[in-house]
Amino acid sequence: MADKFILIDGSSMLVTNYYGNLPKALLFEKDPEKKIKLYSQIMHNDKGQYTNAMYSMMRSILKIMAELKPTHMMFAFDRTRDTFRREKYQEYKGNRGDTPEPLKEQFTNMENMLKAMGFVVMSDDRYEADDIVGSVVKKFEKEIPSFIITKDHDYLQLMSDNTRVWLVQTKQETADELQNKYGAEFGWNKNLTPLPDKAFEVTPDLCLKEYGVRPEQIPDLKGIQGDASDNIPGVKGVSSAAIPLLKEYGTVEEIYSAIDNAGDDKGLKELAARWKDDLGISRSPMKALITYRDVALLSKELAKIYRDYPVPDSIDDFRISFDREKALEEFNRYGFKSLIEKL
Description:
Blueprint: E1 5-9, H1 10-20, H2 24-28, H3 32-37, H4 52-68, E2 72-76, H5 84-88, H6 101-116, E3 120-122, H7 129-140, E4 146-150, E5 163-168, H8 172-182, E6 199-202, H9 204-211, H10 218-225, H11 242-249, H12 252-262, H13 265-279, H14 286-291, H15 293-303, H16 324-334, H17 337-342
Parallel strand pairs: 1-2, 1-4, 2-3, 4-5
Antiparallel strand pairs: 5-6
């Protein structure tokens, strides 16, 4: 059996499973105090520890191992929002509310449970999960085919001939639609390449087709368009011009080189006219790009995944050594009776 390395964005998976397995009453309650009163309805074990996200995530992991048969595996978790990016931009991820207590508790317990079972789990106070995954992939992708499981589009920049992103969609129907749309063109076959539930496999060519940019241009795209989910500002009012400009110039820096080389007002008007005629950009982004140059460059830097985080020396450090006895112990501790049968 060929080796296969699956790298999982643990934070993304746990959060998705938390909200996907919440009682409906709690999911739709807006009042913070009423929400807290409904916490008792969340799945928990006999000690009162919350388990809804852990149970669903563990069920997914067992399914991934059984169906996709990875030989190597790792999980990366976000530990804090106060990473090096917030040192560069104080408002980074500043639009996100506090993590609910039942989820916060499960982050700690899930990481400990995975470690106890023999999985590699990595996190850091200054770096995000995607920086860790990016660094691991950079080091080992030429040795072993690598597959990243996440909901986060930032990870698309990590794709290469050796690395695929299995991008998790909100619904299975969406994933199926995307696979049907591109399957024939990109040689994807459900029977030959099984996928995780709700996931859509993105390759570098497919990234260009679906998102309008190559993987390495994802930070440039976010430099211009911003990213509301991470509170990355981008350049206001330039969204629709981003893809044609990047197609023409490749990077944010090269767009600014073209602006600088245009020289005076007359040159800038001529450049804007060329953008309109040749690139089909009807509403000129020139003024906004000039006004928000620093913001564009900062936004790109915030969106770029750092890839020099220190990682283990050998790919063998990530080889799966699943401890069934420990798994049994953990499943009993958290009351995962139906998962015990799957062992």
